[in-house]
Amino acid sequence: MPTDPALPDGRPAAEVLAELRALRRADAPTRGGRTFAYVYDAGLDGLDELAAEAYTAFATVNGLDPTVFPSVARLENDVVGAVAALLGAPGAQGTFTSGGTESILLAVKTARDHARTVRGITAPQLVLPSTAHAAFHKAAAYLGVEPVVVPVDPVTFRADAAAMAAALTDRTALVVASAPSYAHGVTDPVAEIAAAASARGVLCHVDACIGGWILPYLRRAGREVAPFDLSVPGVTSLSVDLHKYAYADKGASVVLYRDAELRRHQYFAHAGWPGYPVVNPTVQGTKSGGLLAQAWAVLQHVGEEGYTALAGRVAEASDRLLAGLRSLDGVRVLGDPAAGLVAFTVAGEDTGAPTGAGEDTGAPDLSLLLHLADEMRELGWYLQPQLSFDGLPPNLHLTLTPATVGQVDALLGDLAAALAKARALEPVTVDPALAAFAAELDPQTLGPDEVAAVLAFAGLGEGAGLPGRMAPVLVLLDALPGPLKERLLSEFIGSVFRI
């Protein structure tokens, strides 16, 4: 019985590449310093080309078996060795991974298996501050570990070391600190948390996916940086993404352990089948050597002095941005940003006077904040909206890179104009009756028609595409209970990837 072909007969390479380039033009720019989330731009000429050539040279190398492809072992030992030298302790061992989520998942898996085999824990818990990355909750869900979430200080947004210590139990397999946390860019009290964990015989992981590579170079550039890495007593593992402030292409991270004995709990080995003997250090089995090669090439090319200079440029951009934000009426910077991440919120009324660091500007206005994000997007800037959570205010998040140094003045000028325009717009509100109705819904029992109706109400119905302005959608999401919000987000993403 004839069927429609899955693919065309074949198209010329030039035509295929032209279509890819056309698709790419619809994306947010990844270079130039105007997209303040998701991308890390060193602003160095030739770096992208170097990474691409290194990837191409190793694209067909299979990282599954370093005995067949010994170059994989050499490159990984070099990369992990550099990370260990920067962040480690004598004897530290690690693994190259595909990103922060995989590094975190492996750290949680290691802690779970260590707790099971060494301490006899069969129902392990993961103690983490409420600002810890969502990847820890993903790992807990995948691995059958119970997350125990501890509220952070509502003023500094840092983990409460005493509360974290009080949350430790005989079932705790791992405790987490961030250096810094993604949402607010502040560094948790790592030394205090690690000491409390050590006193209970509990492993302690530092999520330095963002800060792990830049914080040491900020210190070398003359900035004050508190100890956070494996040199801190009680810290037993750490994750650092090289595709962030090491400026490698996406798909490059390292998870580091205090010693090889701890790292062995990360590995999966299986000899109970008739095929080749399997031992996987990471979640992936087969993987291209290209991502490892490009990360190695970028580290080798930029070098020690290069990374110190780049960290200094990020610090310069951060200083100028923070000063500018604090001069704007009603704007409040959240916490004490440590490593290129800045979050700020906006009060509903124009106070008529500039505010200083940490000063109260009045209640954050979610509608105004999201109008501001939309206005900035129309001007060609992407600032990442973050909704309210557990008493923590909604805000706009910015990730600074060396490429943003030359953009700070333009950003601040457009921000002031966009804020004035946003204040003149009609506030976006949610019908209280709708919010009350949504609060009674059970997301687990919603049928497809009901989910489709809610998505359509939010402007995210099937075939509708993304709305031009996100403020109405995000205001509604902010008002929904967490489980319903998660269900709708999952359904929406499912509709995006539906053929």
From TrEMBL:
Does the keyword Lyase belong to this entry? yes
Q: Which domain of life is it from?
A: Bacteria
Write down a Pfam family by its short name: Pyridoxal_deC
Q: Which residues cross the membrane?
A: none
Gene3D superfamilies assigned = Aspartate Aminotransferase, domain 1, Type I PLP-dependent aspartate aminotransferase-like (Major domain)
List cofactor names only: pyridoxal 5'-phosphate
Listed GO MF terms:
transaminase activity
Q: Any signal peptide, and if so, which residues?
A: none
What's in the keyword line of the UniProt record? Aminotransferase, Lyase, Pyridoxal phosphate, Transferase
* UniProt family annotation: Belongs to the group II decarboxylase family. Sphingosine-1-phosphate lyase subfamily.
* Name this protein carries in UniProt: Aminotransferase class V-fold PLP-dependent enzyme
- Organism the protein comes from: Streptomyces silvae
